[in-house]
Design goal:
Blueprint: H1 2-40, H2 43-69, H3 84-112, H4 119-141, H5 148-177, H6 182-209, H7 219-227, E1 234-244, E2 247-255, H8 261-279, E3 281-289, H9 302-309
Parallel strand pairs: 2-3
Antiparallel strand pairs: 1-2
Helix pairs in contact: 1-2, 1-4, 2-3, 2-5, 3-5, 3-6, 4-5, 5-6
Length: 310
Amino acid sequence: MVHEHTHITDLSRSTIRRLALSIGLTVVFVVFEVAAGLFANSLALLTDAVHNVTDVLALALTWWALRAAAKPASSGKTYGYHRAGILVALVNSTTLVLISLAIFYDAYRRLSAPPEVKANVLIGVGAAAVVVNLVTALLVRRGSEHDLNLRSAFVHLMGDVFSTVGAVAAGIVIRFTGLNWLDPLVSIFIGLLILWNAWGILHESVNILMEATPSDVDVDAMLSDILQVEGVRGVHDLHIWSITRGLRTLSAHILTDDIPVSAGTKIQSAVSETLYHHYGIAHATLQLECEGCIPADLYCDITSDIHHRH
């Protein structure tokens, strides 16, 4: 356990260092890209620069959330600060949606009267942006598949990678054809890409905050597996939710025969092992009961319970 705790701490420190480096690289490039976008009169470059500003904020919030999540649980925060990352993911994804709407509005105005774009500047700066954005994205990629907070930051940065590739492509075409309307058209494509990625993170963040059942958990199959544990006679008052994307928890009442506490402990242990190995639920609170079960009442109505007791 000590070795595992040390590993997690070292991994968090490594992630925080990589985030700090990503923030520094992004800030430097934002200043350069804004100047180049104004000089080239390119909405695609200015759009990408604005998106990079939000990346700085997103990375800073992600950095803060990782540090907050490392704080131990206390009497005031009995689950610790793990949900800080979900709140940051919600803020990041909401910001991305608003940015997409602003991009669509600016692109619409420019499509009606496309200004001349300095294609050579757009190509050169866009190519540099691809490199910078890809490097920063790779710096935060590790761990993003299990952490929604890191995932939101990674999506921010990968959105930049694809958007700058689009800007470079538009610059090349404009250079040889003079079709300046391609610049705002690429911005619309960038906005749609950002919106599509943001929606997935926003939806998952809200589900976690609403304590929804994880989407990959088959509740019927789980109940069947629990009922197959020797000594289990029924299950009710079942709740399954996520603290973060990778931290799931469950509470349930388990109906058994009228047995000694020692026998009940073995049943609890067997159910917990099943939940951990089959469904990734490492924290399960199981209350054993031998009478008073209402078989149809699988999901407890907390409000009605409170009114009934009063």
